[in-house]
Amino acid sequence: MAEDKLAIFEHQIRVYYEDTDAGGIVYYANYLKFLERARTEWLRALGIEQDELLERSVGFVVKRVEMDNHAPARFNELLRIQSEIVELKRASLMFKQTIVSPSGQRLVSALIRVACVDLRAMKPLAIPAFILEEFTRVV
């Protein structure tokens, strides 16, 4: 995948029945799961596997979420999730993520701050150089 395609990474997610309420509308908390999956797939596209990070006791944890719901997603829709890094610091980064309907309508927009932590100590950790190198390549 070319670097320019990773600057704004796009991932698709199908809305399953289990994601919805009785009216077939996505339950708001499930958008956070969709956003998490998209960030994980973006890392994978960069060649960063989270299980390998876990072996090194390196983790990325969500520190802050600011999310706006603009319109509902519905059962069986194939949603597009766009993710990009808008801020990169020594031990944290901020993602801008947008969930878009099949018709192109913006459904959800979010800013999510993710912190790098040493999972054994549960303390902030500078983003390891090999990861930072991949991030700076697409920011």
Structure report:
There is one protein chain. This protein is α+β, with helices and mostly antiparallel strands and 139 residues long. It has one domain: Hotdog Thioesterase (Thiol Ester Dehydrase, Chain A, Roll), CATH 3.10.129. It contains 4 helices and 6 strands. The chain has helices spanning 3-7, 28-45, 50-55, 129-138; strands spanning 9-14, 58-69, 78-88, 92-100, 106-118, 123-124. Strands 1, 2, 3, 4, 5 and 6 form a 6-stranded antiparallel sheet that branches. The longest helix has 18 residues, at 28-45. The mean pLDDT is 94.
Question: Using only CA atoms, what is the Rg?
Answer: 16 Å
Return the CATH class: Alpha Beta
Major sheet details? 6 strands, antiparallel
The count of strands amounts to: 6
Instruction: Quickly count the helices.
Output: 4
Kindly estimate the percentage of residues that lie in beta strands according to DSSP.
35-45%
First and last CA, distance: 15 Å
From the helix content, strand content and strand pairing, which structural class follows?
Answer: alpha+beta
Q: CATH homologous superfamily - what is it?
A: Hotdog Thioesterase
Unreliable stretches (pLDDT < 50, length at least 5) are none
Question: Would you tell me which CATH topology applies?
Answer: Thiol Ester Dehydrase, Chain A
Please state the second-level CATH architecture.
Roll
Helix content: 25-40%
> In sequence order, what are the helices and strands, one letter per element?
HEHHEEEEEH
Total of domains: 1
Overall residue-averaged pLDDT value: 94
CA-based shape: elongated
